[in-house]
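Hi all, posting the design record for the shared folder.

TITLE: backbone redesign
STEP: 1 of 1
STRUCTURE INPUT:
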């Protein structure tokens, strides 16, 4: 900081001269007219003269001019990112993701002291400043750079940027207008540098544009799939359209159809054998070299089965063929299909689950595959056999889809298996906290009187005979230790005597509702060793009550399952829709006796589908989505007896949806009797977003070359040059701040004035006292 002293008189100079002369004249007159020689001395007149001089100096207004030099500021750079839908294209990363990664790496590689101040903007149909890279989404239907450059100066902060950087694929729409603007930027000495997003390796795109499936099929039938393949840029190339079981795309396909691509749309038909065990399937095309995106190459679908059976996933940790007892008990009911699984080594650090009928398959690999099941039974399986995702999917199956869950005791079950530290803890009706033990103690089960009427215990129609059958339940030879059932759970059975480790009787069977579904738990085992007699001797010289018990458990648990619901059959005209396209609906509803009816009120609404990569919606999120989703009430028709209606393939506005090429959705159909919900069914559909931006997916570097050259900038060849450019801007010199400080506005100066005035007053008073004393002495 530097300073310079100057004078800024308040009045003209001649007035100060007059004041000075007048002051001297007054002092001289006062000296001659002093009543006492002492008052005419310079001891008295000196302070007066100094005060007068200081007052004249103050009126001359001395000013100290101070200069403060602020530190240099980082250079400002405006970065404009193209956020049109063509930036969604590119494999394996989209163009926009490549741009984000380039910006992030470039700024991170420059030291903070040398880093320019990057002001980030998105452009497409509109220009907007964004606070971070996260806010960049490819949602605009057009890429208009000219309006963005026109508005940019007014959106900038106080400093004019040193340069403008445009990151785009070059698919711009305003050529002549851009030419004028780039000339204007050159005149402002504001160069526009460009960086191409994407590469010229893209040739076009291949998509499954339409898919229609038969309304109802039966296992063993041949189903014809009608689809339309859309292709651009790959005319004459041979590809194979294939159908796979969902989650098993690496396995041999269920059906194939070789086709020769043409530019445009071409209809195709595939015939696939219907297998009730396959469940969800996918129709797919191979991703070709140079294809813009792979998102629209695969479409999931499923075939609606006539008279669908309950599907149970049963996992048994006990080795050997012990799984057969429970599996055979369930499949004695022709309406129940049981998929049995065992583990290769129950106590391994990472046991592997294997399906009995297909050892190469394990636990469902996707959420949709798991949702094919109505009930999941886990009997003595280590939690290490599952991924965290699979555990979360099971919770979702029960809470949101009305499925059922069972945990059966064993050395790796409940607290002994550490399940109280997983998401399954909330499913299990036992309080497992702090319990890590199991004991080999023989006991019988006592069923509380108020639990005898529970559907699980209805083994026989006659109440007295049913009571006798329950009393014949064999003894168990061991159990996991459980302190109590949870407050919302129902106790269905407990030990007939106190266990020393617990100090009281212990719960053995319990059930509880959870979300839309139900759960069940038994602390002991359903197989050897603890349940050896239970599985083989509970019956009339056989195990008939054991078998009926497990069928009751499964049917009670699956009562609210969306997968098990046979009271609604939903048919749509297609599987794939473009946004806004009408969904034609036909729904058949059935009453409690499974007879066709049109007495219900049936509604339909389109909701966002949960995917394997997305967490399940909370109840609050689901409620908010449902309240804003588009819905319709279907119209009853008596010939044939069904409900028909139409619903637009459109979701509530969400920028996340606009930034997707292909989007899974769900059609939720619900039947009501008055205000009571009778049944609900979900149908998986697909929204295929289309845009004119995707008609020609190739990037256009020549457009960006022209913009850079016309404005005095250059087109950067890659991320390295982008980094070098950001690091080349010198900081902007700091501003110089000027401050005018009056020198008379000083406490020291005003203190001096007060001291001089006080000194003058004291001197006069002393002279008066001296004169009075002299007069008295003379008298």
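Okay, here is what came back for every position:
SEQUENCE:
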């Amino acid at each position: 900081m530097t300073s310079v002293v100057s004078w800024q008189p308040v009045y003209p100079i001649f007035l100060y001269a007059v004041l000075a002369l007048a002051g001297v004249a007054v002092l001289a007159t006062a000296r001659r007219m002093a009543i006492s020689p002492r008052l005419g001395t310079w001891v008295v007149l000196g302070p007066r003269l100094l005060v007068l001089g200081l007052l004249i100096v103050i009126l001359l207004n001395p000013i100290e001019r101070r200069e403060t030099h602020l530190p240099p500021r980082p250079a400002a750079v405006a970065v404009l990112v193209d956020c049109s839908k063509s930036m969604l294209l590119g494999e394996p990363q989209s163009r926009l993701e490549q741009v984000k990664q380039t910006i992030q790496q470039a700024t991170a590689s420059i030291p903070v002291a040398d880093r320019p101040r990057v002001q980030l903007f998105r452009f497409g149909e509109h220009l907007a400043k964004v606070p971070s890279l996260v806010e960049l989404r490819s949602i605009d239907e057009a890429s208009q750079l000219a309006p963005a450059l026109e508005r940019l100066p007014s959106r900038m902060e106080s400093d004019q940027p040193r340069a403008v950087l445009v990151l785009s694929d070059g698919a711009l729409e305003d050529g002549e207008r851009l030419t004028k603007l780039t000339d204007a930027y050159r005149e402002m000495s504001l160069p526009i540098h460009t960086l191409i997003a994407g590469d010229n390796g893209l040739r076009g795109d291949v998509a499954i544009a339409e898919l229609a499936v038969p309304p109802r099929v039966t296992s063993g039938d041949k189903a014809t799939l009608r689809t339309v393949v859309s292709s651009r840029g790959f005319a004459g190339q041979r590809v194979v359209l294939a159908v796979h079981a969902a989650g098993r795309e690496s396995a041999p396909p269920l059906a194939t159809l070789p086709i020769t691509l043409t530019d445009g749309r071409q209809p195709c038909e595939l015939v696939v054998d219907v297998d009730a065990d396959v469940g969800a399937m996918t129709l797919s095309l191979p991703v070709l070299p140079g294809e813009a995106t792979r998102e629209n190459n695969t479409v999931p679908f499923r075939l609606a089965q006539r008279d669908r059976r309950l599907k149970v996933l049963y996992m048994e940790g006990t080795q050997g063929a012990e799984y057969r007892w429970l599996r055979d008990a369930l499949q004695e009911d022709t309406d129940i299909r049981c998929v049995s699984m065992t583990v290769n080594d129950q106590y391994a650090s990472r046991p592997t689950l294997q399906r009995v009928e297909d050892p190469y398959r394990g636990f469902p690999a996707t959420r949709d595959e798991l949702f094919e099941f109505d009930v999941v039974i886990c009997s003595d399986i280590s939690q290490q056999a599952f991924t965290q995702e699979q555990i979360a999917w099971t919770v979702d199956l029960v809470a949101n889809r009305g499925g059922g869950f069972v945990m059966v005791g064993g050395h790796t079950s409940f607290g002994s298996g550490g399940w109280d530290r997983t998401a399954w803890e909330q499913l299990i009706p036992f309080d497992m906290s702090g319990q890590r033990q199991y004991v080999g103690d023989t006991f019988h089960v006592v069923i509380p009187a108020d639990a005898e009427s529970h559907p699980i215990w209805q083994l026989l129609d006659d109440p007295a005979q049913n009571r006798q059958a329950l009393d014949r339940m064999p003894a168990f030879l061991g159990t996991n230790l459980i302190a109590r059932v949870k407050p919302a759970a129902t106790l269905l059975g407990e030990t007939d005597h106190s266990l020393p480790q617990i100090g009281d009787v212990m719960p053995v069977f319990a059930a509880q509702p959870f979300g839309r579904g139900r759960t069940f738990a038994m602390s002991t085992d359903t197989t050897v060793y603890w349940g050896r007699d239970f599985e083989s001797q509970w019956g009339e010289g056989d195990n008939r009550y054991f078998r009926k018990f497990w069928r009751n458990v499964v049917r009670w648990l699956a009562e609210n399952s969306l997968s098990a619901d046979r009271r609604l059959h939903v048919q749509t005209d297609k599987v794939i829709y473009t946004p806004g396209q009408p969904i034609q609906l036909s729904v058949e509803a059935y009453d409690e006796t499974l007879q066709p009816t049109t007495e219900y009120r049936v509604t339909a609404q389109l909701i966002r589908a949960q995917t394997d990569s997305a967490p399940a919606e909370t109840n609050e999120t689901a409620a908010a989505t449902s309240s804003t989703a588009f819905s319709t009430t279907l119209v009853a028709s008596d010939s044939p007896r069904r409900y028909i209606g139409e619903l637009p393939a459109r979701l509530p506005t969400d920028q996340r949806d606009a930034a997707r090429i292909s989007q899974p959705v769900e059609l939720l159909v619900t039947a009501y009797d008055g205000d009571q919900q009778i049944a609900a069914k979900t149908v998986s559909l697909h929204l295929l977003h289309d845009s004119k931006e995707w008609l020609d997916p190739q990037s256009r570097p020549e457009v960006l070359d022209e913009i850079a050259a016309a404005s005095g900038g250059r087109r950067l060849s890659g991320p390295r040059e982008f980094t070098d450019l950001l690091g080349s801007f010198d900081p902007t010199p700091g501003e110089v701040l000027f401050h005018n400080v009056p020198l008379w506005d000083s406490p020291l100066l005003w203190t001096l004035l007060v001291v001089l005035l006080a000194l003058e007053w004291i001197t006069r008073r002393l002279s008066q006292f001296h004169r009075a004393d002299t007069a008295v002495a003379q008298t």
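COMMENT: The two ends are 69 Å apart (CA to CA).
Let me know if anyone wants the other runs.
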